[in-house]
Each structure stands twice: as structure tokens, then as C-alpha cells.
Amino acid sequence: MKISCRKKTALNSKKDAILIPVYRNMRPLKSLTGKKIEDAINEMIGSDYFSYDEKEFSAFYVEIGRKLKKIYLVNISKDPQDLRYYMELGASFAKLLKKDRISSFSMIAFEDVYMDKKDPQYSAAFLDGFFFGQYSYEAYKTKQEKNWQFDEVEVITSYAKLKRAMDDNAANLNVQFDNIYLAKDLVNTPPADLTPEIFAEKIKESATEGLKITVIDNMDELKERFPMVYAVGKGSCYPPRMVMMEYNGNPQSEKHVALVGKGVTFDSGGSNLKPTGSIEDMKTDMAGAATVFAVTKTAAETGLKVNIKTYIPMVENIIGTSAYKPGDILTSAMGKTVEILNTDAEGRLILADALYTATQSDPEVIIDVATLTGACIVALGKHCAGLFSNRKFLAKNITDISYDVAEDIWELPLLESYQKRVKSDIADLRNIAKQKGEAGSVIAGLFLQEFVDNWPWIHLDIAGPSYIEEDHPIFGKYATGFGIRLLNKFIKVHYSENA
User: pTM of the prediction?
Assistant: First the structure.
């Protein structure tokens, strides 16, 4: 979608429609709209049926150059709000334009309406929401709606700073959302059409300049180098894969960020079979993998000056004649042994091998992303991810960013007093605690911590917000793309030279 930013009046817009934010007793907008449109706005808002209910859209037509131009008004708060307010407006407006079959529009910048020259973020946040609102997934519908694509958004502003920011970021915004859409498509794909082999092939096909992709598919090599990935995946007729991505965007530096994503393409629970009500959406158990894939790909395609090494273990956790079983003892890549008490706690096993491998290349920070525990949904609900970290400054840095991108995370404790709960009597570790129904997310985090060897580390449990069945005000329904914008910004601000 083309994003342009111009100093002009809305009266001169060549787009299909015009969006104008309004609030009660606002200053005249004639310098931005032109007198004819301002007069029409005043007539509209002065009518008896117009209300100033916040976030409400209303529409009317104005004749301009012998053609009718559709004008949308959106009622906003008199004072600037946090950025998610404008993301929600953008998502709602995208759905409205899709319904009205409008493919291009001009908008008066929120910054101009507020006369806020200092911090040009409101219109950018609106565009983020607009991108989310455009997305739909209809790949398996036999009768699909006519494909409706937005061609252009034109932001009208009098502020040079806002114009520069829009011009500088337009291309990168499109790249970011291309990859968010790709990740959402992957998470929404049925498991029969996204086996470990297919997922790995899709990543290979996505290779862009500067992005090196290695896929380990040899079972003997997997057994030797990633033994718990092998053990979890060998029960399926679709063998496991280990995908490694490398992007060297700052070759002058020896530092790099390590990303790890859980790639369980379907999770039946194995011998500890999930019940009805818990198994239907387990195609989404690879959302962490889709997230780190999209983040790495975005970094490469936007030329971010940072080095990234990404590790994605891919398995299907299924009942089979050679599936691993409760009571088995597995040896990890690190050498630690793990007693299996529940085969449905498989994600932490494959992550453990990947995390240990990440430590071997001397990373500046390790970030893993996983749909790891139902307990995190119980604790935080579907709109918030759990955050664990062994460094307070890391937890603060990423939490500060999460608020601005409206991707909520909440830090949970790695309680030392619970560490003994992951210790086994007959092996080094057990994959779940024996205390039933207690601190499941904390126990999973403590298990993973055993494999990072005190390297700076962040663990994001996105079991809740990665896939939401009700309509989220920004991210929509089903796969959300949660975490991609969060990590893109976190890495750019704290680890790249583009900040």
C-alpha cells in the first residue's frame, strides 16, 4: 500500500475519500480542508442528529469538481490519548472502508488537529491499526469475497517533521506488515498443510539478500545435535526439522541477537492426549516460530544494522508407534537429562536444545518466543503475554516498548524457591512439576532457564495473545501477529545502529 504525506488541502485530494478527525469546539480546519469542506463539516456537526460519541465514524458527500467526494468524520478525544487509541481507530476504519469498497483516501493528520508538532506518532499509530484492519484469511473458502485492496493512504499535514517521518518510514512499514501478514497466514494454516517440512520450505523460499537459511532434516544429525527435538518429533510421520537463520546486517560488529521460536506445527499432547476443547486450535502452537521468522526477515529486508541468529525447532507432537512416552529420560543437547512426566510439555524440550545451541555463539541477548503454557492464559488472559527474564534491565526495556505498540506483556517471577520443582529424583530435571495446577508458567520458565547458562535472556509466553477467537479491537480475529512489532522495535532501539 502506498503511503504518501503532503502539504496541501483536502479539497485538492484526488483520492476516493477523505477522513477528518473532529472533536467538540475544535479550532477551524480551513487551512487543511479548504473552505467548501469546512463549511460542509460545520453543517454536518451542527445538525440535530450528530453526536460527539468518541471513536464514532459518520459520512456524507461533498460535490467537488462536479464529482461527489465521500467525507468521513471520526470523533476523537479533545486531548491526545495513548497510541493504542489511534491504532483502534485505524483498525475500525479499515473495516469500514472495506465494507464501503473504498480503495484510497486522504486523511488530516491527528497532529495537525491537535496542533502537536513535537511527537508525530498518532497518525503512524493509526496506520498500524489500519494495516491490521485490512487483513483477512480466506484461503480455504470455496466462495471468496472479491479481493479488495487498498491502494494508497495520503496524510495531509502542515508539519515538516511529520512529513519527514512518514516519508522515511513508509517503505519499512509496508515491509513489516507484509511479514506480519505472512506470519498470520502461517499460524492460520491447517496443520496438514504446514508440517515441519512444509514450514521449513516456506522459510527457505523466503530467503532474501543477506539472509542465510540452513535446514537440518537428517534424522541422524538431529539425533546427535538436537536430541530432544528428535525425540519429540520422531513419533510423527512428518519428521522434525531444525531451521537456522542468520542475518549479518552489521558485519563490523561481532555482537548479535539470538532469537528462538517454538515451532510445534500440531500438538496433540502425545500420549498425554489433549481433550476436546483444548486440541482444536493446536495448529497455532508454532506461533513463536512464525514470530521470530518474521522478525528476522523484516530486519533483513529493511537493512537493519544488527546481526541476528535465529533458531527454530520444528516438530509435530503426535501419538505414534515411535513417540516418546511418560517415564522416558531424554538427554538434551546441553547434556542434562530430563525425566518426562508429561508428553504435552514438549515445547520446553525442543526450546531447551535451541536455547543451549544459541548460547554457544556468544550472543548479546537471547530472546525466545513460545505458545508455551495454558497457565499463562489463566494468569493473564488472551490479551497479554507473560514475560520472564534473568536481567531486570531487559524486562524493563522490553516492557517500556510494549506499551507503545499496544502489545501487552507482564513480568512474572522466576522464583528461586520453585527451582527445586523442576529437579528430578532419577534424572537432572523433570519436564513438569509434581505439584498439580500451581505456577505452570513459572515452572516452564525455570525449566528453560536451566539451558541459558546465565546468558542475558528474555522468554515471552504468547500462548494467550498469539491467537484470539473474539474480535480484538486492533489485531482482529484468530492469528494476531503479536510480538513482531514489539521485537522489531526492541531490537532496533537497543541493539541496532539504526536507532
Answer: 0.96
